[in-house]
What we know:
6-stranded antiparallel sheet; disordered N terminus; alpha+beta; 6-stranded parallel sheet
Amino acid sequence: MNKIHFLLLFILFPLLSTAQNNTETISLNNGWQFSQTGKDTWYEAEVPGSVQRDLIRHNVLPDPFFGTNEKRVQWPEDENWDFKKTFTVTAGQLAHDDALLFFEGLDTQADVYLNGSRILRSENMFVGHKIPVKNILKEGENRLFIRFYSPIQSMMPARLSAGYDYPAGNDHREEKLSIYNRKAPYHFGWDWGIRIVQMGIWKPVSLTFYDKARIDDFYVKQKNITKEKAEIENIIEIFSVNKEPVEATLFVNYSPIEQNNQPPALTKKITLTHGKNLVTIPVEIENPALWMPTGWGEQNLYGFWASLQIGNQKVSDKMVTTGLRSVRLVQEPDEHGRSFYFEVNGIPLFAKGANYIPGEILTTQQDNAFYERFFDNLEATNMNFVRVWGGGIYENEEFYRQADERGILVWQDFIFGCVPYPSDDDFLKNVEEEAIYNIKRLRNHASLAFWCGNNEVEEGLKFWGWDKQYPPEVMQEWFEGYEKTFRQLIPNLVNEFDGTRSYIHGSPYIPNWGKPETFAMSDVHDWGLWYGHLPFEAMADRLPRFASEFGFQSFPEMKTIRSFAPEDQWSLESDVMKVHQKASTGNSLIKKYMDMYYHEPRNFEDFVYIGLVMQGNGMEESVEAMRRGRPYCMGALYWQINDSWPVVSWASIDYYDNWKAQHYRMRNVFAPLALGVKFQDNELRYYTMSDYLTDVNNLRLTVQVVDFNKGVIKEFKERVNAGANASQIVKTFNVAGIIPEADKANTMFRAWLTDSKGKTVSTKDYFFYWPNKLNLPETNVNTSVKYANGKYTVTLTSAKLAKDVFVEIPVMGAKFTDNFVNLLPGEKKVIEIISPELKASAKTPITVRHVRETY
């Protein structure tokens, strides 16, 4: 980002031949102290941060992740907490026309005082506050004081006066207070989440001194975008300090990033009145360089710069970086029901991705390095879409900036999930302020594809049995509140303050819990797998138009388990494992599915390993069926990609950035051009599944028939073509003509595609059965390691088939070029392990296991 800012400044700044803007902004992040209200013990506070994060840092609270410590970190949520700091203001700073104090985020109920005056009452974690404070500031020392009120105790009167508890099952406390708080729902717990209900200054604080006027907001509204022309409205919001009208000139420049070919600046003479002023400057860009999703082209970005001049002085400026593109959700009647897919720059897109939850329960630990790692993992897995789920937060700027630059489209939920909400006037006024603030904050991002009102609220209202627990008048109130909030208030605000993106009231669009007959008309949260106890293979027979949630749990690998559980707690029913499994039937369900597909593992470590393999292979089967099923099915966003703490969950990457088997499988099945296979009527049908916008011709398909003990016994080669942006059958084999029925338990098919230059494009292994029906041979995997600083190179060989070979190393977050691989008889497989922690001299131990060793 620094590079982009520098280049844009270099390009545009010479065009503005006015005197330098003398606005001054100072950070107020440093020097804070905090204390429990009524106590006189003050601790140094990190800002951004939270009370609980600092209490852990000061060793007042224990490590919340270890053992059963979760219950020992709960008490701060019931207390009030005070924050204070002093800062100095000079006479020169006070000479400016105005001073603006900006709290970008306070979590959540708080009163803010400056020099004895209460300047703010905060009621919403997701809203920033700009407060004019010039008349309160004084030369020399100034004092800020914030009292944060317990989100539990401050909302207890609302619960008591409601007369009932809301059905907030993910709120892990007897009294359900989360629904009254406009703060991150996942702080209160979830079926994968620890409960740490935080308070504090969770975003930066700054103080700006300026003269005459300031540009508060700059919206580059993309009215109509085609490859021939981009029609744009530059909408600039200006606040004027002057009580009388002031003549001013507004300049707008734009240019492709890293190109010095900007047209002359657009100018507009304006008259500013006191307070808020909205100015619109339209522009048309011929033959724009379009922003394309990853895999389809370049992520071309433009810089737009607005500058305000009064007299001969530039008084304010603002820059926006965005990409020019069109994105729309297509919901149209067809012969099956109703479509549900995204069209980018006029082209249908198969959405490949996952649901994202906040990556830290201590939210402010998500720094820029976290976001870079996260998007590295998305990119490495060939994803083009990510859903920001409604139980977390509206993400930080860095999240969307990374998505813009990498071509990852973002499905953005408003932050509501899995429970009805109040709908009184005060609550909805709070929601309105939150929606406006975040629509305006995020709307310039090219990656932002879509707005969704909530996660599963209407699904719950219709199908989760609440009507059996609550009287009809309460249910009626909740349904009416849903209409007011998600079908009236929020869509009206999206239309007013965005006006370019699609919106749906909630996901799924049509409630479909356990009702596959509706799958033809909506996005789907299909929990038939897992909660519905359906087998993995059933997913191919119930394809949705768009899968926005589906998933399967696994434990994290053993090195992660060792970080929170001593060896005497390595059992499914131990106290520690119960604390680290938040789904009520989670461990028993993992075991039930394992009994369906695998031999019983010998011990807990084998159980953990087999669970990882089962999750990976089962989810690959489901996702591949969806991708083969296009254009009927046009999206697979699995639940979930990441964790917020070390836990048993549906994640494909654990908390410490270790890829599970599922993430490797997703990398393969989401490849831009992937090979798929379907076994039906004793035929193996091979598919090409391509995202490329042009045909890929002259590919060679090689199919080997492999005996588990003997190796390759037959081989077939075929020239095939992959159709553009499509999935299609390219070769069918009659299995009966290749191997007898009795040999299926001893035989697999390995197939791969190579391009015209001989490079392998995609590989696909097919087994006729799950492992408990296969005759897997006993075999030893031979391992040799070449040690170097930062990289170990592991070479694997085996005389017989070794299925799902897992290479382990006790280094958190180490990256493997591959893992959980099928090692064929006589095959040599080379895997590189990469981490800055690896030292050649240390020869960190590596272990290898495969499925047959577990029984």
